[in-house]
Design goal:
The protein is mainly β. The protein has strands at residues 2-6, 10-11, 17-24, 33-38, 45-50, 57-59, 67-72, 77-82, 91-98, 106-109, 113-117. The strands form 2 sheets. Strands 2, 4, 5, 6, 9, 10 and 11 form a 7-stranded mixed β-sheet that branches. The chain has a 4-stranded antiparallel β-sheet with strand order 1-3-8-7, with no helix packed on it. A hairpin with a 4-residue loop joins strand 7 and strand 8 (77-82). The protein starts with a strand and ends with a strand.
């Protein structure tokens, strides 16, 4: 299993970024996927989840209305469109795979992509 994130960058408050995660080594359409973020010294924070066929999406209150999760099962790609970025969004963002069946347990993580919102 491989999850490779990209798209992180430095951006000014109010700006936008689009993160991508390319998955390989497993049947992508079988698994729910999430984005999780972490800042140094803090516990990981769940950001958003999308069901295996994109029929269900969920967002943390802190990003609701600003972030949009999506997936392209033909390209084994997970995305996170982030708009109206604020300094609290600064973090290392991970693409994570749920265990089979969609339970709220993650079994594989990517290496992360850094998002920095300049203050």
């Amino acid at each position: 299993v491989q999850l490779v994130e990209s798209g992180g960058a430095m951006v000014r408050p109010g700006g936008s970024l689009r993160l991508s995660c390319v998955a390989s080594g497993f049947p992508f359409t079988t698994y729910a996927m999430s984005w999780v973020r972490q800042t140094p010294g803090k516990e990981p924070e769940w950001v958003s989840t999308i069901g295996s066929h994109a029929t269900n999406t969920h967002y943390a209150d802190s990003v609701k209305g600003r972030f949009t999760i999506s997936r392209d099962n033909t390209k084994n790609t997970l995305s996170l469109q982030m708009d109206s970025l604020i300094s609290d969004d600064t973090a290392l963002y991970y693409c994570v795979r749920h265990i089979e069946g969609g339970a709220w347990v993650f079994d594989y993580w990517g290496q992360g992509t850094q998002v920095t919102v300049l203050s």
